[in-house]
Amino acid sequence: MTRILGIDPGSLITGYGIIDMDGNHARHVDHGIIRVKGESLPIKLRVIFEQITEVLAEFQPDEMSIEKVFMHKNADSAIKLGQARGAAITACAVQRLEIFEYTANQVKQATVGKGHAAKEQVQHMVKILLCLDKKPQADAGDALAIALCHGHSREGIKRMDVGISSINKGRMR
């Protein structure tokens, strides 16, 4: 069984979701949000780092998955998002977690079955796939979707790594 932490980074709200994967079966462990307070960006980044570090200490995940930054409309927002992402990644890297990145379309494809699904569809599918009583808050739901995306992708990634390693070993002889 593998415990996966999914993170939906944000400079105001960072969502996290934790699942256990046993083969293709996912089990919900926890989810929540970190409300990022602080007057300056460095303080906000410290809050993200410290809160993610606390989540890591409490739940001891094996792997972390996070959404890749994309440029939407506002460059300043993308930069802040990238910095929030960096704080979360650093907290996990310090703990020596393996880190995986997915695009928003990959996450939607993995959870809903179509890469341009609406946020509400993602939340609905997360609720169904993890047998939750109610839809999680949007940022936490996105984090759970990111964890699910990785959980369902990781078996293929492992098979490809084994295949590539075997091929490379064969060529070195």
Q: What separation lies between the terminal Cα atoms?
A: 34 Å
Strand runs, count: 5
Strand content: 15-25%
Q: Helix segment count?
A: 5
What is the global morphology? globular
Tell me the CATH superfamily.
Ribonuclease H-like superfamily/Ribonuclease H
Q: Classify the fold: give the CATH topology.
A: Nucleotidyltransferase, domain 5
Structural class by SSE content: alpha/beta
Task: Write a structural description.
By secondary structure, the chain is α/β, with parallel strands linked by helices. It has one domain (2-172): Nucleotidyltransferase, domain 5 (2-Layer Sandwich), CATH 3.30.420.10. 54% of the residues lie in helices and 22% in strands. The chain contains five helices and five strands; from the N terminus they run βββαβαβααα. It has helices at residues 41-59, 75-94, 104-111, 119-129, 138-172, and strands at 2-8, 13-22, 25-35, 63-67, 98-102. It has a five-stranded mixed beta sheet with strand order 3-2-1-4-5, with helices on both faces. The protein is globular. The model is unreliable at 162-173 (pLDDT under 50).
